[in-house]
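Why do we bother with a discrete structure alphabet at all? Because it lets us treat a fold like text: something you can write down, compare, and reason about line by line. To make this less abstract, here is a complete entry for Armadillo repeat-containing protein 8. Read it the way you would read a sentence in a foreign language you are learning: slowly, and without expecting to understand everything at once.
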Amino acid sequence: MNIVPHQIFVMNAETSRYYIDNLYTQDNNKCYQALNFIKNSIMGSNRQKNLVIANGILHRLLQVLPDQSKTPEIRLETVIILGSLAKGTEDQVRTLVNANVVSFILNAFLLHDEPKFIEACLRCICTIMQYPFIDHSVVFNDVAIIKKLAQTIEDSISNSICSMSILSQACCTTVHQNILWTEGIGFTFANLLNTELDDLSVATLKCFARMCQDNTSISSALIAIECNGKTMPEILYSMRGGDRPTGMRLVASKCITCLYRAGALEVNDPKVMFGALPTLVRLCQNDQKWEDRVEAAEILAVLIEDDAELQSLASISNHLLQTLAEFVNYPIQPIGQYNNTFFELRSKEMKQAAFKVFASLGANDEEIRKKIIETDNLVDHIVMGLKDHSPKVQLAAVRCLHSLSRSVQQLRTTFQDHSVWKPLMALLEGASKEILSVTSSTLCNLLLDFSPSKEPILESGAIELFCSLTKRSDPSLRLNGIWALMNMAFQAEQKIKSQILSTLGTVQMFNLLTDSHVNVQMKTLGLLRNLLSTKPHIDYIMNLSGDDIIEAVMMILKNDNLPEIKEQALCILGNIADGDIAKDYIMKNNVILMKIQEYMTNENSKLQASAIFCISNLVWKDEIGSADRQAKIKEMGILELLQQLITTSDSLIFDKVKTALTQFSDS
């Protein structure tokens, strides 16, 4: 083809009209010339890229790309232009995403096999896939795309890097992971990692991490793959060594972390404990780039999250706590600079990464929590983080606070001194589901009876808020809602208990008692137990909702529930039986008495003990009306049953039976 020469490739009003017109011509030579001019005019110029978009050229490019009447050269120029636009500003990339450019390119990628065209497609897709606002799963809309990506991995170094990068960005679910495994991607890792090409190794490692993340079966299969006599974990261990580039060390440590968290590696495996962990701690140090420090901290937080031994080891490794103190105290603005958005972003990223590590470090050990809380201005930074406009910072801050709130000492001192409950309560309004879950869970701890924060939280409208959480579709929110109410009701004043019961309502209480999640049922029964404690409160609550409570308890005992749930229901009856007036709800209901009698001979000793405890409270001889109650119990044959049970070898049952029998004056 003959190309019209241009000394200066600048698109203006006159030239743009001419070349736009030529894009629509059926003359392939003119169309190619127009595309070639546009390609050269936008290269390195975001202003020229804006002109292309503003003049509607993008729409025409997406018409040209699938047009089978166009030549391979035209298709190649079109994709190169799209790839150049993808390297423009974020707004320009958003325009490409909104125009569904990736889908157009993927379709063309499937239809054609010209090597240069394939490479241009991969480069363009790879560039766009780096942005978070694209639907990355579009790559998995057609398995044929995955198959062809797998084929291109062996074509060239450039294609290998792009394909691995695309797959690592697109792999977001277990289904995606399984598709990649089925297409044999897992078996290409060892070969691709057996090179001296750092960029290829890093891209491959990123795909490896995505593929095995939270996937036990694939992780277990990957560790069995060998190359040149080395297993994949051994290869990963060597790639996080100090002689490797930082980016490689980071992602290799991430791969080891993913294998461990998926259960493919044991916690005491040297590759975990003496490989990934010290490497990540080392990469948090201040001689590294801030981006690498942040990533290292975030991976470290995941690595140690669930294991006390790793948390303990990390806490004493390479001055980690001191390093994290540098993170949280990282200045928002350098000295002499103001309104610098970049430095503000950096400071926030450093803080949220530190919050994540602190949350993991303090998950189990009180001594570690104490050391964490002594970090300079930490609680002040956490409180500021709770108020931050960034959901990422908010979530990291509240997770850190949740971890530290497991400390009784901190609940009584530091948390109260800083009134952390205030920003937590404010955070609940309009929060995302994830933030709402962790925040409400933290407030559950602040509502424990020994916490000084309990009273002010109650006074701020918490009852209504947590009752509303019990109606959410997310089971974790329902659990936190009822858990908080249970904590509120523990040793609470009568007016608080009354408010909880009236605000929750009996209908919702029944809903929670039949919830599909056992933990929600258990905490609801725990709430009822706490409401029905101390004689005056028992009588008062039963006077308010006695019939409904009895109906709820009977529903639990009659239905096919777990023994733990039935035990809680029997304990509630035991509490009711301790009331002065409330016990009549049991004594006047033969169905309940017979159900209690039935559980006295249950094969589960805890259910037996709970039923006998209930009888003991009903017949307590020092209480008014005990003689009449004892007479009825005898009449039903329960006394005789107690006398038979006294021969039991179970010490728990024996003690309960003995206590009950001593209440009968003539026994």
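What the structure line is telling us, in plain words: Residues 535-558 form the longest helix (24 residues). The first strand starts at residue 226 and ends at 227.
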